[in-house]
Each structure stands twice: as structure tokens, then as C-alpha cells.
Write a structure and sequence with these properties.
4 copies of one chain form a homotetramer. Chain A is of the alpha/beta class. In chain A, 50% of the residues lie in helices and 11% in strands. Chain A is built from 12 helices and 8 strands. An 8-stranded parallel β-sheet of chain A has the order 2-1-8-7-6-5-4-3. In chain A, helix 1 (25-38) links the parallel strand 1 and strand 2. In chain A, helix 1 runs parallel beside helix 9 and helix 10 packs antiparallel against helix 12 (280-292). The two termini of chain A are 34 Å apart. Chains in contact: A-B, A-D, B-C, C-D. The interface between C and D is large, with 36 and 36 residues. Chains A, B, C, D: Pyruvate binds at residue 49. Chains A, B, C, D: InterPro entries: Aldolase_TIM, DapA-like.
Chain lengths: 294, 294, 294, 294
Amino acid sequence: MPDHAIHGIIGYTITPFDDEGGLDLNALDLTIERMIDAGVHAIAPLGSTGEGAYLSEEEWTAVAERSVKTINGRVPVIVSVSDLTTAGVVRRARAAESFGATAVMVLPTSYWKLQEDEIVAHYQAVGKAIGVPVMLYNNHAVSGIDMSVDLILRIVDSVDNVTMVKESTGDIQRMHQLYLRTDGQLPFYNGCNPLALEAFAAGAAGWCTAAANLIAADNIELYEAARTGRLKDARASFFRQLPLLDFILKGGLPKTIKAGLDIAGVPVGAPRLPVKPLDEAGRARLSAILETLN
Amino acid sequence: MPDHAIHGIIGYTITPFDDEGGLDLNALDLTIERMIDAGVHAIAPLGSTGEGAYLSEEEWTAVAERSVKTINGRVPVIVSVSDLTTAGVVRRARAAESFGATAVMVLPTSYWKLQEDEIVAHYQAVGKAIGVPVMLYNNHAVSGIDMSVDLILRIVDSVDNVTMVKESTGDIQRMHQLYLRTDGQLPFYNGCNPLALEAFAAGAAGWCTAAANLIAADNIELYEAARTGRLKDARASFFRQLPLLDFILKGGLPKTIKAGLDIAGVPVGAPRLPVKPLDEAGRARLSAILETLN
Amino acid sequence: MPDHAIHGIIGYTITPFDDEGGLDLNALDLTIERMIDAGVHAIAPLGSTGEGAYLSEEEWTAVAERSVKTINGRVPVIVSVSDLTTAGVVRRARAAESFGATAVMVLPTSYWKLQEDEIVAHYQAVGKAIGVPVMLYNNHAVSGIDMSVDLILRIVDSVDNVTMVKESTGDIQRMHQLYLRTDGQLPFYNGCNPLALEAFAAGAAGWCTAAANLIAADNIELYEAARTGRLKDARASFFRQLPLLDFILKGGLPKTIKAGLDIAGVPVGAPRLPVKPLDEAGRARLSAILETLN
Amino acid sequence: MPDHAIHGIIGYTITPFDDEGGLDLNALDLTIERMIDAGVHAIAPLGSTGEGAYLSEEEWTAVAERSVKTINGRVPVIVSVSDLTTAGVVRRARAAESFGATAVMVLPTSYWKLQEDEIVAHYQAVGKAIGVPVMLYNNHAVSGIDMSVDLILRIVDSVDNVTMVKESTGDIQRMHQLYLRTDGQLPFYNGCNPLALEAFAAGAAGWCTAAANLIAADNIELYEAARTGRLKDARASFFRQLPLLDFILKGGLPKTIKAGLDIAGVPVGAPRLPVKPLDEAGRARLSAILETLN
């Protein structure tokens, strides 16, 4: 795949709220600095983890602009610009580009199920509206839409700047097909945390993970072992991280990552209701897991 | 079940747009008058059919206010007030009550999967905020959340004004359990069009349907046959309607109902992108089906 | 549908075993007499309930022959002749016909998933081998094969003596399609106990049920109410039976029906291992449910 | 895991039939010799691939005895002894042990769904009946029973000679849990062909595969690359094999492997009806895939 492609550990930011439920952009800066200091290869604001779907348009814009400014070119920035309407995605994609995003990420979310032609047109609209690359994001668990490998490749073929694919279904066979059918030339990224070892084994260019807020060094260690072909080291690193990866997947990312940051001394507030903060038993379990990793 | 409960055919409005994609409230009035003239027993604006999820807050408010005003007490009005955040639902529920809604309908929609406690708290928040009844709405196909019968009854038990349940999973066994476990005292409503016959057979208080925009007289005929225990008439009426009910379910309600209204001479514009208007082949098929019904 | 079609309550026999695990054909006779005395409209030996899949070839033959002989033409007999191999089904179908069966029932069971052509050929082989009608049986929960309505109608069209369809998926929409696409001319039978009310509402010709071993009078009452179009009576009868119907579905038919017969004073032995007899808590619950029905 | 555990490539035999549909034990010998010559680490007769479920008791016994005799201790032999009844499994397990099998494999197949206690008792019965190790086999796609990791570990804990687990669900997370919860001490084997790379990455002791009838050298190459930690070589080997692995999975193993052996000059007859031989288009596709591998 092309040398300039984004690769490695792509850390997903949470969106911190203050006690009144408003944005806490200073805390956002802190979480960004933590990940850059730890060595992540790219940062992705406003994704699923970033509660992008729960923000008002003004809040979304403020977080996008601040994130790009704080990162300030030190690593690539992939801004999630998903919205229920095509018009909304186009508006957000243009804003992200204007702030200086390296790329944007688009998950087709929809209340009403979409036909394939509707999804292709959705990507065409956003692709045409901007000049930076688009990362196609497939995650039916949060979006209700499951794009087949056929559909993904159709979109990649028909929209010039859709050049990367983030696969979060957790089905390794999808990655196999993406690899086989493009002779390994299409960069794909894993968004299912407990699949990190196998995704790298199957040739994933990167791992999109909110875990980098808490254990970026471990995430990077796994990536480096896999990249340099040291399978046993990769396996050992993976199984050490797996209890945490399972925990954040099952518990929900905003809830568990926010609790983990609080445990780590970086208060970032609660998720937005109806999502509640992690309860006491969950926090105790998370603390215990984190202690095994440091 | 209580005499005063809403019953019969509850017609769901679409939300008309003009050529620029803005609201067309005069067309909304027309669709409301059509259903009232045809004899529906209640009207429900801003549900799934009404593209409530695709509207801005200002648009949502305008449609809610206008709908209640146009209906003007001639039939009960159930306004859908669903939103991704609890704060948003509370805001909309208060607005609907202030406009004069008979009841509100709440579908827990969420990007991140919710735990049962979070769903209960969501209903408690809205229940406490208003004085009118709440219709709980279960429809995982559009919301991504499937509430079990256990959870539904827990909510009904713990929130005083949650007094009605709309079941749209299409699983008749859920209705059986709702009936059995409340001795038939909890009014439940069917939201799965091709289940209309069986839902009435199983004791449903009503049928929530967007089909009433197109074939309200048939919908009412089925209800009356079932209500008066004439099974053979109900069956004959149902099978006559079934091709249309299947068609609108598979095609998506806003898309097919808007096309059907256009065919009937009531132009209401296109759905919001990424949902496209019904294509030509679909329109031809829909016209053919509608002709068999008139 | 044709006047001569089998209709009403089709009682499924269990296969009684003695203390050593061998066949107890005298007990089989008792269970058959009970159902005939109660007024069932047909009897079906060796189905899922009859543990046909767990018998040796000699045992299967003995039960088939004895059942037909005991029934002795008093009601139609539908013998289940399913087997993993096509050769086995043909052999059993010929045996059943030679004993005097009114019809045979065939469920395509397979270890390896079958393609549609293979299933069609399977039915063609058995259809050609015998002169009596074949009831096609669809039940993926036990067979691992789910036949679509398209496939079922293709088989009905291509095999002359496949003239009846037993649908046990519990999906009422399948029955709707069978009805719509044959103008109500293809007799279909319901094999999902908790769907009995709705299947009759949708026009099912009969109800295939092992419950007739325990509550045949109630089963018949529901059928008669539905047949004569008395919807409210049918609903009341159904909801009274529903706790039992749910219990036997969830518990497994051989296990629960054998326990129920034992409670009723007709000892029929245990199911074959690995299926165990109903445990004590289950027996207590079953006794309590049965008491509400008498 | 223990040094003596079976590891590497475990080749699954097909069961050859002659033109009359009877056993062809000479052809069976040929297929066994091919795999031993190619260097497989163990051989497994009468599994899913071996159509064990479609054989009469006499046929099953003949194949079991002949397989062990032909292999003659050159590699370990794991005989599949699954049967619908517990009595049948015990009988087959004892026979296999008496013939000299290294181990037996047990898949709980059942017509009626089994409760967990029933499955545990099933394994206890067979474990107690024999002195050789038992490989637990989980494959709901063919058996209709899906054993959770909890249940598998409960069986491993409660039956001394259940010492190996074959996981064929294709869900890599099951393997992760088996590894994590036994500190990597329980040997697990992959039975899902297109998961071979990732299963080895996750620490699988072996790969149970019918592909070894056709491309044993490639299978072994992948195993050796993974065993010695050469991730890039393993990935390259895997993607070269993947089209074949996908093809045999989707086409069904007896059908496709028998066709592949025929293409390779080893006629082994057709599968038993209702499973048909691979059709012409399938044979052409299989030939084309095999040519890329030699």
C-alpha cells in the first residue's frame, strides 16, 4: 500500500464535558497531549468514542476546530463527520477540511435503512465536496447499516478520495476479502479492539482505538511487534491487553474510557444521558485491569 | 382495558418538504385532513414515518405545533418526541404537551447501546417532565435497541404515565406476553403493518400505521371486523391490503407513502437524503397495487 | 382448499419406552386411544415429538406399523418418514404406505447444508416412490434447514403428491405468503404451538400439535371457534392454553409431553439420552399449569 | 501446553464410495497414504468431512477399523464417534479405542436442543467409557448446538479425559477466551478453514482440515511459518490458500474435497444423497483454484 497512508495506532479522543454538561476543551487538550506524548501515529476526534452523535452542531464545530488546532500537525488528524443527513455530512466535512483535517471519516448512519445506491450517493456527495481523503467506516453495531465487502469496494472504486476503510464488524473474513480483492493495495484499519492481533496478522494498516487514551504504549508495542513480524511478541502483548479491550468493548467506549481517564487523574466528566457514567463495580473492575498493565 | 384508551387506527403523518427541501406545512394540513375525513381514530405526527429524526429542532417544533393545531381536537394526537439524548426528549415532550398533544410517543434511540437501567431512567425523566400519557415504542429495526417484554413491563410499572405500548418488532409472541402478564389490562398497539390481522386477533387496542395516508378505509374496515369478532371478514380485508402493507414495509415508509400520496394527487416532496424518492419501477408497482384497492 | 384435505387438530404421538429403554407399544396404543377419544381430527406418529430421529430402523418400523394398525382408519394417519439420507426417506415412505398411512410427512434434515436443487430432488425421490400424499415440513430449529416460501412453492409445483405444507418456523409472514401466492388453495398447517390462534386467523387448515396428548379438548375448542369465525371465543381459548403451549415449546416436546402423560396417569417412560426426563421443578410447574386447564 | 499434545495439521479423511454407493476402502487407503506422504501431523477419520452421520453402523465400524489399521501408528489417529444418542456415542467410542485410536472426537449433535446439563452428562458418559483422550468439538453450523466457552470449560473441568477442544464456529473471540481463561494450557484446534492464519496467531495447537487432502504441503507451510513466528511468511502462505479454503467452506466439504481428489486423479465417488456431487461449474472453478496452488 502507498507509503504515505496513515498507519499504526490511531487514537480516538473522547469529548470531555464539565459539571454543567457543556464542553471542556481544556480537558480535551490534555487527552490529546497524553496520546501524542505516548507516541500514537494519528488522532481521530469526534468518532463513536467522541460522542459526535450527541453534540449540537455548535459543539461539534468547536471540538473539531480545537482538536485540529491542538494537534497542530504533529500527527495526522482524521475528523469523524458522520451525520444522519447527507447535507449534514457535507457541511461537517467542509468544516473539518477548513480547519486543517488530514482526512475525514464517514459512517453512514441512518434511521431508515438505506439501499446500496443511497449509500454510494452519500459517499459521492461528501467526496465531491472536499479535497482531503475520506476513510469509509463500517460499523453496523452503532449505525444499523452493514456494508458488504462488495459495496465497500464499489464505493472505493467510484469515489476518488475514499482511500481508506475502517472495518469494525469484528469479522476477520471481511478483512481477508478486502486484502484478497485489492491485492493488498487498499489500506484497511481495524476498529474492533479484541481483534487487534488478528487484524495485524491479516495485514491491517492500522488500529483505530480509544484504548490509546489509557494504554497507548501497549497498543504501540503490539503494532511494532506485528509490523516487524515478531508473532510471539505480538501474541504476548495482545493477551496482556485483551482483558482491557474486552472490558471497554462490552462496557461502551465513552463510558469506560472516561472512567479510565478519571482513574488516571484526568477528569473528563460523564457521558451524555441516557448513557450513564460507569458504575462503582465497573470502576473497581477497570482499576484492577489497569493495574495489571502498568 | 380502560375505556378512555386510544384505540383503532392511528394514522402516522409524513412530513412534506417543498422543492427547496424546507417544510411544506400546507401539504401537511392536507394529509391530516385526508385521514380525519377517512375516519381514523387518532393521528401521530413526527414518528418514524414523519422523518422526525431528520429534522432540525426548529423544524421539529414547527411540525409538532402545526399538527396539533390543524387536528384541533377532532381526534387524539400522539406526538413522537424521540431524540438521541434524554435532554432532547424532555425538551420535545414539554413542547408537545404545551401545544396540546393528547399523548407523546418515545422510542429509545441510541448510538451507544443502552443498559436496561439507562432506558428506565430515560423513560422516568420524560414521564416526570410532563402530565400527559406516554406511549412506549419498541422498534429495534430503526432504533437499534430491542426492549424485552420484561423491560417493557418494568418501565410500565415504574413510570406512572407510561400507559400504552407500541410493539413494532413483528413478533406476535411479544404481544401474547404483554396480554398474558397484564391480564389484558395494558393497551398495546401494533406497529408492524403485515401483522395487523394477527395483532387484532391477539387483542391489540390499535394499529399504528402510515398506510392510513393511502387506504384508511381499508384499515378501518379490518379494525371494525376484528373488533366485532367477524374473523372471516377481517381475514378477507387483511389479505386484500397485504400486498400494500408488504410493499411499504420493505420499501421504507417515508419513501413509499410520499410516493403514494403523490400518486393520489397530494404532492408532498421527497424524503431527505440520503433516503431517495421511490424509483420509477417502484412507483409503477405501487400504482398497480393501489389500483387493486380502489 | 379441497374438501378432502386433512384439517383440524393433528395430534402427534410420543414414542413410549419401557424401563430398559426398549419400545412400549402397549403404552403407544393408550396414547393413541386417548387422542381419538378426545376427538382429534388426525394423528401423526414418529414426528419430532415421536423421537423418530432417535430410533433404530427396526424400532421405527415397529412404531409405524403399530400406529397405523391401532388407529385402524378411525382418523387419517400421517407418518413422519424423515431421514438424513434420501435412500432412508424413500425406504421409510414405502414402508409407511404399505402399512396403510394416509399420508407421509417429510422434513429435510441434513448434517451438511443442502442447496435448493438438492432439497427439490429429495422431495422428488420420495414423491415418485409412493402413491399417497406428502406433507412438506419446514422446521429449521430441529433440522438446520430453512426452506423459503419460494422454495416450498417450487417443490409443491414440481412434485405432484406434495399437497400439504406444515410450517413450524413460527413466522406468520410465511403463512401469509403461502396463502397469498396460492389464492388460499394450498392447505398449510401450523406446527408452532404458541402461534395457534394467529395461524387459524390467517387461514391455516390445521394445527399439528403434541399438546393434544394433554389438552385435546382445548385444542379442538380453539379450532372450532376459529373455524366458525368466533374470534373472541378463539382468543379466550388460546390465552387459556398459552402457558402450556409456551411451556412445552421451551422445554422440548418429548420431555414435557412424556412428563405430562405421566402426570395424567399414563406412564410412557423417559426420552432417549442425551435428552433427559423433565426435572422435578419442571414437573411441578407443568402440574400447576395443567391444573388450570381442567 | 503439554508436549505430548497433538499439534500441527490434522487431516480429515473423506469416505469413498463405489459406483453402487457402498464403501470403497481401497480408495480410503489411497487418501490416507497421500496425507501421510505429504507430512500431516495427525489424521481424523469419520468427521463431518467423512460423512460419518450418513453411514450405517456397519459402515461406520468398517471405516473406523480400516483407517486405524492403514495409518498403523505412523501418526496419531483421532476418530470421530459422534451420534445422536449417548448410547451410540459410547458404543462408537469403545469401538474406536479397541481398534487403536489415539483419541476420539465428540460433537454433540441433537435433533432436540440440549440443555447444558444434558451436554455435560453426554461427555461424562463417553469419557467414563474409554481410556483415551476426547477432543470436544464445537460446530453449531452442522450440529445445531453452540457450546459457549463457559460450557466448554465446565466440561473440560468435569471430565478428565476431555483434554482438547476443536472450535469450528469461526469466532476468534472464543479462542481468545479459551486461551486467556486457561493461561494457554488447554490445547485448542481450529476447524474453520478461512481462520487458519488468525487461529495460529492466537495460539491454536493445530488446524483440523480436509484441505490436507488437496494441499497438505501448503497447510504445513503455514503451520511451520506460524510456529516459528514468521508472521509475514505465514500471511503470504495463507492468502495463497485462502481462495481454496473459502471455496471448500462454501461448497461443503464432502462435495468439494471429493471433487478435488477426483481432479487430482484419486476417484472417491460421490457424496451420499441428498448431497449431490459438485456440478460442472464448480469443478471448473475448483480446478482453476487448484492450478494456482501447484
